[in-house]
Amino acid sequence: MTANWGSSLSSDIAIQDLTETQARAELEQLADLLNQANADYHGQDAPQISDAEFDRLKLRNAAIEAQFPKLKRDDSPSERVGATVADGFSKVTHDVAMLSLSNAFDDEDVIDFDARIRKYLGIPQDAELAYTAEPKIDGLSLSLRYEQGVLVQAATRGDGAVGENVTTNAKTIADIPHRLSGAPDVLEVRGEVYMSHADFEALNARQTANGGKLFANPRNAAAGSLRQLDAEITRARPLRFFAYAWGAVSQALSDTQYGAIKRLETLGFSVNPLTGICKTPQDLITHYQQIEAQRATLGYDIDGVVYKTNDLALQGRLGFRSTTPRWAIAHKFPAELAWTTLEDITIQVGRTGALSPVARLKPVTVGGVVVSNATLHNEDYIKGFDSKGVEIRDGKDIRIGDWVQVYRAGDVIPKIADTDLSKRPEAAQPYIFPTVCPECGSDAIREDGDAVRRCSGGLICPAQAVEKLKHFVSRAAFDIDGLGAKQVEQFYSDGWIAEPADIFALKARYGSGMQQLKNREGWGEKSAEKLFQAIEDKRKIPLSRLIFALGIRHVGEAASNLVAQHFGNWAAFEDAMGQAHAHEGPAWDDLIGVDGVGTVMAQSLVNCFAQDAERASIDRLVAALDIQDAARPDTAGSPVAGKTVVFTGTLEKMTRAEAKARAERLGAKVSGSVSAKTDILVAGPGAGSKAKKAAELGIETLDEDGWLDLIAGL
Ligand code: IVH
Question: What CATH superfamily classification does 542-628 receive?
Answer without folding.
Answer: 5' to 3' exonuclease, C-terminal subdomain (1.10.150.20)
